[in-house]
UniProtKB/TrEMBL annotation, chain A:
Its main location: other. Component of the IFT complex B, at least composed of IFT20, IFT22, IFT25, IFT27, IFT46, IFT52, TRAF3IP1/IFT54, IFT57, IFT74, IFT80, IFT81, and IFT88. Interacts with IFT27. Interacts with IFT88. The lineage of its organism: Eukaryota, Metazoa, Chordata, Craniata, Vertebrata. InterPro entries: FA58C, Galactose-bd-like_sf, IFT25. Pfam families: F5_F8_type_C. Gene3D superfamilies: Galactose-binding domain-like. This is Intraflagellar transport protein 25 homolog. Belongs to the IFT25 family. Residues 17-125 form the F5/8 type C domain. It is found in: Cell projection, Cilium. GO terms for biological process: intraciliary transport.
Automatic annotation (TrEMBL), chain B:
SUPFAM superfamilies: P-loop containing nucleoside triphosphate hydrolases. PANTHER family: DRAB11-RELATED. This is Small monomeric GTPase. The lineage of its organism: Eukaryota, Metazoa, Chordata, Craniata, Vertebrata. Keywords: GTP-binding, Nucleotide-binding. Transmembrane segments: none annotated. GO terms for molecular function: GTP binding; GTPase activity. The keyword Nucleotide-binding applies.
């Protein structure tokens, strides 16, 4: 089991549509669900994770709060361009605890993953962790 | 330092002065349009507001909506929920709300309840900070809506009440500053909540 979307394996968040310096997007891939990135208003919101090399994956797990609709796109190029949709989902609303959602994929290879939050259950949504297996 | 973004929906009957108000706010009082020109659909005004003593700011995307019923369908599409048909115009849910009436027109005041309902119908239980604005406060001899009455109704609806005169450049910033502050407070509340979750 490899948590490839962790900063320790060389992954980076190269773009985030919101930034509060107290809750930076790096918190998404630090392997800790206590730290988080929070959106700062309006939708859609997005962030892009770049891996240090092409990564094979069959499962993406996301911990978040108040996210409603999420699309995940990928590419296999060295630039953050030409993304294709791989999966999308409407999350259930949770109260008082984080949302935990798994995305099963039929073996996929990617150099970038792009997460687009098209709507939320509140004005602000937080993403606590993204892991890839 | 953080910059929040809020989608501010500006509604109210035709000719109560919504566009005049948003233009006065945008131009810091430099631009009062003397001739009336009706807004069709929605016009967008963007302006950043600093939150005192914080270094933070709120960028308001003000959707100045047409007051005339003819344009209502188009407006509702732009205020509201994601729509498959117009992905480009999917601006997401409203963040804050500004309902405007003309203090010299009781009819325009009575319409405020309807405008409030229309916008809230798009919000699905979302907490929506709002203000009620009585504009044209310079028309004191023709006033039909007393301040106390407007204030009482605003309070019953959880709105903060402001009186403005776009023409006399009076108090035009206050409603928007108050909305920015309310949205900022909401953001801080949410961060506190989220910190207790993990």
């Amino acid at each position: 089991m490899i948590h490839a979307a962790l900063s320790s394996s060389g992954a980076q968040v190269i773009l985030a549509a919101s930034s509060d310096e107290n809750y930076p997007p790096e918190n998404i891939i630090d392997g800790n669900t206590e730290s988080f990135w929070i959106s700062t208003g309006m939708f859609p919101q997005e962030f892009i994770v770049r891996f240090s090399e092409a990564v094979k994956m069959s499962l993406i797990t996301i911990h978040s709060y108040n996210v409603k609709n999420l699309r995940i796109e990928k590419n296999t190029s060295s630039d953050a361009t030409d993304f294709e949709l791989i999966t999308q989902k409407e999350f259930e609303h949770t109260d008082g605890h984080l949302q935990e959602n798994d995305f099963q994929l039929s073996a996929t290879t990617a150099t970038h993953l792009r997460f687009i939050i098209t709507s939320g259950y509140d004005h602000f949504v937080s993403v606590h962790s993204v892991t890839v297996q | 330092m953080v910059k929040l973004r809020a989608k501010c929906i500006l509604v109210g009957d035709a000719s109560v002065g919504k566009s005049a108000l948003s233009q006065m706010f945008r131009s810091d009082g430099a631009h009062f349009q003397k001739n009336y020109s009706m807004t069709a659909g929605v016009e967008l005004v963007v302006k950043s507001v600093s939150i005192p003593d914080s270094g933070d700011s709120v960028e308001l995307f003000i959707f100045d909506s047409a007051g005339k019923d003819t344009f209502l369908d188009a407006c509702e599409k732009l205020w509201g929920q994601p729509s498959v048909l117009c992905v480009v115009f999917d601006w997401g849910q409203p963040s804050v709300l500004c309902v405007v009436f003309d203090v010299s027109s009781e009819v325009s005041f009575r319409s405020c309840a309807l405008w409030l309902d229309r916008v809230r119908a798009h919000c699905q239980g979302l907490q929506l900070p709002g203000v009620l604005v009585g504009n044209k406060s310079d028309l004191s001899s023709r006033r039909e809506v007393e301040m106390a009455m407007a204030q009482e109704w605003a309070q019953s609806q959880g709105l903060e009440y402001h009186e403005t005169s776009a023409k006399e450049m009076e108090n035009c910033e206050a409603p928007f500053l108050s909305l920015a502050q309310a949205f900022y407070t909401l953001y801080q509340d949410r961060i506190q909540t989220i910190q207790t979750l993990a």
